[in-house]
Amino acid sequence: MHGHSLGHENMQRKGGAYIQRVFSAYYQEEKDIGKVSVLTSLAAELGLDEMEFKQALETRRYQEAHQKALHHAYYESGVRAVPTYIIGNQMLQGFHRNEAIEKAIQKELDTSDLSKTEGKSCGMDDDCL
Q: If you ran DSSP here, which 8-state letter would residue 116 be given?
């Protein structure tokens, strides 16, 4: 069980990189991401344990957690499209031009009192500022 928890932690750390790799494989390389063999190969490229990853897919080990996350996103957060950006009280769903995203960020910066902000800001790869 200890090895499993370490593998899960490793996957959590590399989740953002894995998602980007899957998108790249599908959209740029035209790989069939519906195949377990393709997904496990992509995971191995990122240093994840290929056999453990394959077993997790085949046994649907994280299905319940995934369903809970989808429920939260859809019913509690109102996410209806990918990508979705939540900037302050604004929600941008689907693809937007950089200018629209920059405008939303600037609007938030103009209306927020950032001096009251505490804590760190973390990216997808756990790089925190």
A: G
Other CB atoms within a 10 A radius of the CB of residue 92 amount to 16
Q: Which of 2, 41, 19, 30 is nearest to 125 (CA)?
A: 19
- 84/105 Cα distance (integer angstroms): 14
Secondary structure percentages of the chain, helix, strand, coil, to 5: 60, 10, 35
Chain segment 60-114, per-residue pLDDT in tens? 998 998 899 999 998 988 899 888 999 988 999 998 999 999 999 999 998 887 6
Q: What is the DSSP letter of 121?
A: -
Say how many Å lie between the first and final Cα of the chain, rounded: 33
On whether the CB atoms of residues 43 and 18 are closer than 8 A, the answer is: yes
